[in-house]
């Protein structure tokens, strides 16, 4: 029998921060961006997604 624990934990913010830093580094260099813009995405969508992630981290930090 297997059991799974699901909990609300603010430790996930560390993962979001790490992913956001990696994304920022790649986005600054415009790495792989041509693949997405070639399929119709706009660069602004990436900036918006980064902002959403940063907002999410800020919300988690309030509850720490």
UniProtKB/TrEMBL annotation:
One GO cellular component, as annotated: microtubule
A single BP term in Gene Ontology: microtubule-based process
Entry cofactors: Mg(2+)
GO molecular function, one term: structural constituent of cytoskeleton
InterPro entries linked to this entry: Beta_tubulin, Tub_FtsZ_C, Tubulin_C
Keywords, ordered alphabetically: Cytoplasm, Cytoskeleton, GTP-binding, Microtubule, Nucleotide-binding
Subcellular localization, as worded in the UniProt entry: Cytoplasm, Cytoskeleton
Family: Belongs to the tubulin family.
PANTHER family documented for this protein: OS01G0282866 PROTEIN, TUBULIN_FTSZ GTPASE DOMAIN-CONTAINING PROTEIN
Function: Tubulin is the major constituent of microtubules, a cylinder consisting of laterally associated linear protofilaments composed of alpha- and beta-tubulin heterodimers. Microtubules grow by the addition of GTP-tubulin dimers to the microtubule end, where a stabilizing cap forms. Below the cap, tubulin dimers are in GDP-bound state, owing to GTPase activity of alpha-tubulin.
Subunit annotation: Dimer of alpha and beta chains. A typical microtubule is a hollow water-filled tube with an outer diameter of 25 nm and an inner diameter of 15 nM. Alpha-beta heterodimers associate head-to-tail to form protofilaments running lengthwise along the microtubule wall with the beta-tubulin subunit facing the microtubule plus end conferring a structural polarity. Microtubules usually have 13 protofilaments but different protofilament numbers can be found in some organisms and specialized cells.
Protein's name according to its UniProt entry: TBB6 protein
This protein's encoding gene: Tbb6_1
